[in-house]
TrEMBL record:
Residues 298-409 form the VWA-like domain. It holds the Pfam family DUF2201_N. The lineage of its organism: Bacteria, Thermotogati, Deinococcota, Deinococci, Thermales. Residues 3-285 form the Putative metallopeptidase domain. SUPFAM superfamilies: vWA-like. Residues 141-194 are annotated as: Disordered. Residues 147-158 have a biased composition (Gly residues). It comes from the Bacteria. This is Putative metallopeptidase domain protein. It comes from Calidithermus terrae.
């Protein structure tokens, strides 16, 4: 891995705005991947044999490419585009094209045979989602089906071919095929069998909250560099502005997590004789029960410990109101520090009584939420993150909104550090600088 470590230093020297992301990467040497890949936890898997075949400049370019998959949150965007096992190869082409489009302007050298928009018949300067839709509309079939897609342990061995011109991304002499360029779950959100568990002792995964903080810090440095020198590609500047001043606000992300958690109860109905069955005429004198939709039940655990500021509590109440309006849910609010106050069923956020001010243990609040009757379908925790978390997954989904520190200093240390949130809890960072 020494050659890759040298490449990391070279990339940091060439593009210092990438430094926070570069040094967050966990380097994993393995022959389980044919080339180089990343997972959602910011682990970089590298095959030493592959690295040895690349020049120093090419290795810097490949390292930049893999980091871009993580900075651009391609795994999360793939889920939004409903990328699955059948279409992930098209998403891979689309994201590769979007990343590599800026390589020349940034001065990076990439190995021969990599994907550019023009090679796919696409216009330069496009977004990944636009490229992906265009490729779907072309109705291409996976040209690498016989090579393994990497999702079941295949490493993308090259096929023999039939003498026809290779499709975009197919193998060129001395180079791996596009199937071999499997970028891992960090590029498409689909876990590979060779990826390490998130709690691996030597190479623990970066959590979702920290990853979001890393993206924001890199984006801020990119914009500072652009303002002072103005030498960056338009696509990179557009990405950075989207992170620092998101067009899709974080609140939409939080609401998406809530919808995802409630998906399993959507459309749930309960029988009742108070409402006639709509096809009663077919049953004559036998009275059949009708049904009505059951509203989802959500428990909101609000951190009222001494470390939580009034500004954070104000944000928490805003989110309670958003849940009531957007999710159409029955909401119970629990104010929690080291103990849980009595649950309050609320219709508006101003009805919530915020008691507390002591220590912090959101495990108590989650347990209290799970004991509510009728049972809740989802638990939402709103906290500054400085709390213990359950050791085992609760029986219902848990979403955590993590408030930022409004007193964090500007510059390199502006990202706030919070304890890692368990993998089974969906965390969303909530900035307070709005």
């Amino acid at each position: 891995m020494e050659k890759i470590k040298v490449a990391r230093l070279g990339l940091g020297s060439k593009a210092p705005y990438f430094t926070p992301g570069l040094w967050a990467l966990r380097l994993v040497s393995t022959e389980a991947v044919p080339t180089m890949a990343v997972d959602e936890g910011w682990r970089l898997y590298a095959n030493p044999s592959f690295a040895d075949k690349l020049s120093e400049r090419e290795l810097v370019g490949v390292l930049w490419h893999e980091l871009e998959h993580l900075l651009r949150a391609h795994h999360a965007r793939a889920r939004e585009m409903e990328v699955d096992r059948r279409t992930h190869w098209l998403w891979n082409l689309a994201t590769d094209a979007a990343i590599n489009d800026g390589a020349q302007e940034l001065g990076f050298t990439l190995p021969e045979g990599v994907i550019y928009p023009e090679r796919l018949g696409l216009e330069p300067g496009g977004l990944e989602e636009a490229y992906y839709r265009a490729l779907l509309e072309q109705g291409k079939e996976d040209p690498f089906q016989g090579e393994g897609d990497g999702l079941d342990g295949g490493v993308g061995a090259e096929g023999e071919g039939d003498g026809a011109s290779p499709p975009p991304g197919a193998a060129e002499p001395g180079r791996p095929s596009a199937a071999a360029w499997d970028h891992g779950s960090g590029a498409d959100g689909l876990e590979r069998p060779w990826e390490l568990p998130r709690d691996h002792a030597e190479h623990p995964a970066v959590g979702e909250v920290q990853a979001a903080q890393l993206r924001e810090e890199v984006a801020r440095r990119v914009l500072e560099h652009h303002r002072s020198r103005g030498t960056l590609p338009a696509g990179m500047v557009r990405w950075a502005e989207g992170v620092v001043n998101p067009v899709v606000p974080w609140r939409r992300v939080l609401q998406g997590r809530v919808r995802e958690g409630l998906r399993r109860v959507q459309g749930r109905a309960r029988a009742t004789h108070e409402r006639p069955y709509r096809r009663q005429a077919a049953f004559g004198r036998v009275l059949m029960p009708g049904s009505y939709d059951v509203r989802p039940r959500v428990a909101v655990v609000i951190d009222t410990s001494g470390s939580v500021s009034d500004r954070m509590l104000a944000h928490a109440l805003v989110e309670v109101d958003a849940l009531l309006r957007k999710a159409g849910a029955e909401v119970w609010a629990l104010a929690v520090d080291a103990a849980a106050a009595q649950a309050q069923k609320v219709r508006r956020a101003h009805e919530v009584v915020l008691l507390g001010g002591g220590g912090t243990d959101m495990r108590v609040g989650i347990e209290a939420a799970l004991e509510l009757r009728p049972k809740v379908d989802l638990v939402v925790v709103l906290t500054d993150g400085f709390t213990p978390w359950p050791a085992e997954p609760p029986r219902v989904p848990v979403v955590a909104g993590i408030f930022g520190d409004p007193g964090a200093p500007a510059g390199a240390h502006a990202v706030y550090a919070v304890p890692e949130v368990p993998e089974f809890i969906k965390a969303v960072p909530i900035p307070l600088h709005e």
